[in-house]
Amino acid sequence: MTTTPRWRTLTRHHLFWPVAVLVVLLLVNVPFTPDFFSIKMTDGHLYGSLVSIVLFGSPLILVAVGMTLVIATGGIDLSVGAVVAITGALTCSYISDQADQDALSGVLLAMGIGLAAAVVCGLWNGFLVARMGIQPIIATLIIMVAGRGVAQLITDGQIITVNSEPYKLIGGGYWLTLPFSIFVVAAVVAVTVALTRRTALGLLVESVGGNAEASRLVGIRSRRIKIMVYVFCALCAGIAGLMISSNTSAADGNNAGLWIELDAILAVVIGGTSLLGGRFSIGGTVVGALVIQTLTTTIYTIGVPTQTNLVFKAAVVIIVCLMQSPKFRAKVFGGGRFGGRFGGKRGAEQAAAPADAATTTPETVRTMEVS
Fold first, then answer.
1. If pLDDT is split at 50, 70 and 90, which confidence band does 334 have?
2. Spatial distance between the Cα atoms of 80 and 114, rounded to a whole number of angstroms
């Protein structure tokens, strides 16, 4: 195999462009911070820019993983930011009322209350979408708006501070020299991958997103699948809410998780999952979330003015999405090696064509309807 075919095979992989952009963003920081890649051990803990990116990106990774499954079913969840705020507000409110805030039983109970509220929000979203037939963007918009108000009612419009060492561990503590939140994220991602790739659950989710009616006709309970993914997404957002409030030892009903839903959607898209539903990539979503967090870090590192950082961020996201498009690469790079899978005019036509009619058989049609 020659170098060119190997390069084209590499560029065809759905993770190539997100990983490439992530590497470029990391390298951009080096001229401004020469020790950007250095990791130091201080007081038995690892510190460094790379560790900080993963630490501060952990809540986004969790929310994006849950969002991936929702988007895979053809839905969207705009309420995750409000769920983050509600979970943190309930948990910190309960802990602050305890005589001993370091009591492990009280902290666990508070976390259970917060996560239970997140699950209720997920059930509500799933009920509206799957049972009532309301469009996902409208159904989840309800909690996005009302949930933020509920969080502020819980906190009485104030920032609730706590002083609990056990609770501090979740988002700001360390274990085995690494931030504890990294282990939480790794566990959630591992469980999600195991359930969606080692069982039939992932295929069922993709089937519902690809063709919900065909899935129903072959016996798949698409409504249950949709409710399940909305509950899972809310649960991930709830865990993220625990991390955020734990890291700051405070609950801010107004600002906690603000606009995290948009970053999560961007992370999913950058990771290669289509907003139309169907095939999804958990690994791609994790890389996409790291791209978003690295981009945020890079903006502050290179000194982009505060009033223009959102524009800069949007420009980079647009470039990433365009580079992932085979049609765009075919038009810009032609038949060159950067053209990836499709090159030149013929490549653009292949990218636009849905399938080759000559290879479509009744068996493949039935398979497409199921999957």
1. low
2. 14
Continuous H helices in the chain: 3-12, 16-28, 49-72, 80-96, 104-126, 136-154, 165-172, 180-197, 201-210, 212-217, 222-248, 260-270, 282-301, 309-324, 326-333, 344-352, 362-370
Tokens of 217: 């006709």
**The pLDDT of residue 218 is above 50:** yes
**In the chain, pLDDT over 70 holds for what percent of residues?**
87
The burial class, CB within 10 Å (0-12 / 13-18 / 19+), for 270 is buried
In three-state form (DSSP H/G/I as H, E/B as E, the rest C), the secondary structure along 222-283 is: HHHHHHHHHHHHHHHHHHHHHHHHHHHCEEECCCCCCCHHHHHHHHHHHCCCCCCCCCCCHH
Phi and psi at 131, nearest 5°, equal -95, -40
- Mean pLDDT computed over every residue of the chain: 85
